[in-house]
Amino acid sequence: MGRKPIPLAYRIDENGCHICTSHKPHVRDRYTQVNRGGKVQYMHRYLWEQINGKIPDGMYVLHKCNNRACINPEHLYLGTHAQNMRDVAKSGVRQVIPDKVIELIIELRSVMPTRKIARIYDVSQSTVSKLHNGTYNRLCQDT
Ligand SMILES: [Zn+2]
Q1: Contact indicator for 17, 69 with CB cutoff of 8 Å
Q2: Model confidence over 94-139: pLDDT tens digits?
């Protein structure tokens, strides 16, 4: 066997989501990844399999909470690709901005420069402006 696996650590946020702190999310898709036995796989899939057994072919492990960083087994469920696409469409293609954050961004916009808010919440400046003037469409890809 190769290197020792990194022990799993996570924090629990206000939604009960388990946010992994020991493993980094993938830069592009924000899913946490894990290397087990030389094989890199998605953490939420790995954990789901540890508890429920092998994921059937063609099935996806989906998030009830729409938080890709979440690895709470209770927030995961098995679904089809179509269900996954529906969830993605519901939550916004590029990233999920929780309602609470949207409210905060809108509130902060009157006291803080767009650039600063964008940095704090890790969203683009155009997203901040769109949220502020009410033209942000959660169903469309943010540009
Ligand atoms: Zn969750």
Answers
A1: yes
A2: 456 777 788 888 888 888 899 998 888 878 888 888 888 877 765 5
* Ligand 1 centroid to residue 76 C-alpha, Å: 8
**Which CATH code is given to the segment(s) 10-91?**
3.90.75.20
Q: Computed from CA positions of residues 47, 51, 56, 58, in that sequence, does the dihedral angle turn out positive or negative?
A: negative
Ligand 1 midpoint to CA 110 (Å):
31
For residue 68, how far is its CA from the centre of ligand 1 (angstroms)?
A: 8
Cα 52 to averaged position of ligand 1 atoms, centre (Å):
17
DSSP state of 139: T
| pLDDT tens figures, 48-68 | 999 999 999 888 898 888 888
Give the CA distances from residue 14 to residues 11, 53, 67, 98, 138, in Å, rounded to whole numbers and listed in that order: 10, 29, 12, 12, 22
Q: Tokens 């493993």 — which residue?
A: 23
